[in-house]
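$ ./design --mode recover --in tokens.txt
reading tokens...
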């Protein structure tokens, strides 16, 4: 679910995944790992929340 929410955010804001990762200060390719079942850390979720304005709770909810 987190992956889909980030993809939607990037599409709506016309930003690439790579640019989004840089903006959030997370490693290149990190988001792609989540598509394959990886799980982000709380620290990473907080970084994404700050950039997107989406709360951590909303990011992890279905």
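writing sequence...
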């Amino acid at each position: 679910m987190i992956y889909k929410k980030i993809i939607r955010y990037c599409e709506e804001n016309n930003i690439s995944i790579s640019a989004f990762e840089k903006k959030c200060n997370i490693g290149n390719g990190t988001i792609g790992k989540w598509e394959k079942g990886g799980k982000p850390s709380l620290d990473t979720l907080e970084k994404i929340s700050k950039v997107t304005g989406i709360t951590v709770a909303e990011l992890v909810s279905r």
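exit 0
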